[in-house]
Amino acid sequence: MKKSILILSCLALFVIVSAYAPETVNENSSTEKATHCYKFNIRCKGKAGFYDTVKASTWREATNKMNARYPDCKATQVKQYDKECP
């Protein structure tokens, strides 16, 4: 009798813990990506160079945004800001 009560209480504890576990996993996986500001020197053929800044979560994403914005120019990263863009 005591053995069956122990088994039932362990089973009930397992059900309670397993019902709570997916909620904590979902909270941890929904963290936001950090956004940085990347400053680029843009050089176009036949024109003077200028600077432009873009917000992105990775360097690759920032480079892709600059290349899409200025397709015929060369974009070289100058600086990365971890805080707000100036």
Question: How would you characterize this protein structure?
Answer:
The chain has helices spanning 2-29, 59-69; strands at residues 36-44, 50-56, 73-81. Strands 2-1-3 form a three-stranded antiparallel β-sheet. It has 86 residues and is α+β, with helices and mostly antiparallel strands. Residues 24-30 have low confidence and may be disordered. The radius of gyration is 26 Å and the shape is rod-shaped. It has two domains: 1-31; 36-81.
Brief summary of the model shown:
With 86 residues, this protein is of the alpha+beta class.
Question: Could you say which structural class the secondary elements and strand pairing correspond to?
Answer: alpha+beta
- What is the residue-averaged pLDDT? 78
| Inertia-based shape | rod-shaped
Number of separate domains: 2
Estimate what percentage of residues fall within beta strands: 25-35%
Instruction: Kindly report how far apart the N and C termini lie.
Output: 72 Å
The beta-strand count equals 3
Output the helix-strand order: HEEHE
Q: What is the helix content?
A: 40-55%
Most strands sheet: 3 strands, antiparallel
Strand order of the largest sheet: 2-1-3
Low-confidence stretches: 24-30
Q: How many helical stretches?
A: 2
Question: Rounded to an integer, what's the Rg over CA atoms?
Answer: 26 Å
